[in-house]
Amino acid sequence: MVLDFNNTWSLRSLVSIMTEAAEKIKLLRSSPDLSAATYQIHDESHTIGNSLRWMLMKNPKVEFCGYSVPHPSENVINVRIQMYDNLSSLDALITALSDLDKLCETVEDAYIKDLRENKYEKWEEKR
Amino acid sequence: MSSQPLDPRRLVGVHAERVTDVSSRDFPGHYPGEDHSWNLQRFKKNLKVKVQRLSNYSIEFDIIGVDASIANAFRRIMIAEVPTICIENVFAFNNTSVVVDEVLAHRFGLVPLNVDPSLMEMRGPDDPPTDRNTLVFEVDVTCQRNPKAPKGSTDPNELYINPEVLSSDITWSPAGEQAEVFADNAPAPTNPNIVLAKLRPGQEVHYQMHAVKGVGKDHAKFSPVATASYRLLPYIKITKPIPTHLAEKFQKCFSPGVIKINPQTQEVSVDENGARKDTVSREVLRHPEFADSVELSRVRDYFLFNVESESAYRPERLLPEAIKVMREKLAIIKQAAEALREKSTLVDNDVVMTDV
Q1: Average pLDDT per run of 10 along chain B, which is 356 residues long?
Q2: Which of chain B's residues have a Cβ under 8 Å away from the Cβ of A94?
Q3: B317 neighbors B224 (Cβ within 8 angstroms)
Q4: Cβ contact (<8 Å) for A121 and B90?
Q5: Which residues form the DNA-directed RNA polymerase RBP11-like dimerisation domain (chain A) (predicted)?
Q6: Nearest CA of chain A to the CA of B39: how many Å?
Q7: Which has the least CB within 10 A, B58, B101, B130, B135?
């Protein structure tokens, strides 16, 4: 007899795959000109939520930005953005995403550059 | 570090019973007349990344000049979203050991494998197993009496053949193009000495296993790190000279190597590179004679990372992998946001096509 202990695909990853098929970002509620809006991002957590919030708050045209994880059983985050001068919060979101990407690139380049310089202490760890 | 004065805005105060100035305030509009908006050039100028120590299993590096949200994102991704390969499906053919099937299957799953995850693809829930997304392993161990056991021995290793199922008994069966792809480094457990079950004569364990690619947020066995953590650089400022007769007592309030005492003058100072060794135990603040002569703090944007790899990744590869995952996530969200913008402008301009 062959027993299959198949513990593949926990409920959490099934939920994430179901939501991935749907939209990644949903506009929950907004003013008609999108100057104030709440976006629901699927399959993301504090990792993206907090860093995106920080980058949006670095934008002087952003009046308010905050994020929340509404419930631990749902793998989503809500990001609230309110803009000055009736500007589009969606444009601010897209700018923040590109800026965050450039930030990541900069950190990676600096790390690889320093690693290549070979100026660290090397040691042997026994196991 | 201690020689040049630090911008006091960068410091998180550590006092006897409280911490102060915890949150970052470098946002536009917080300080009147100052520009704190995002500026890539300024960020590049202020950013410093320094690898401090590297071994075959762990790495220590500093990231200076980023916000906690960024440092925390890298840490979280290293733990939960950098993929690795682990045994996921276990098929039992025979198990007469005292360890029940489901417990043994779980133990197989936790064994770290030496497979480079970049050589494999992720398998979705409906995808069939292929040579690109699944590795097949086998365990077939039978315990027997050792006919040549020395008389009067009580050591199971002498009395029996195969008294233990070890991680080294997990053998890989190549399929398709795998023999070629994994020619340099045959898939196997990273540690050959993990005891998975104990056997006695007549007991047998025979399993087939499928290993797949996965991430730590699905199951902790997929996490590539044993620890991935950061702390903030301690900053100690001596505000009043320490009386020479108390110098040694003062030094003992800190971790070894943090406080220097000049052998000639008995003058007390903070070691140039010693502050990072401190635990910020606050012991010094318990002594009334020192409480007014020292200020303890941590630097808010100075992150000391410590990462231990427990996977096929070399420790120095973990941060670049985490950044790669982060950038992939950002690209997916950006694409969705741009699609949303496309949709909303179409609605605004009334060019949505409908049947006339």
Answers
A1: 72 96 95 96 97 96 97 98 97 97 97 96 94 96 95 94 97 95 95 96 97 96 97 96 95 96 94 93 96 95 97 96 97 96 74 48
A2: 334, 337-338, 341
A3: no
A4: no
A5: 36-109
A6: 9
A7: B130
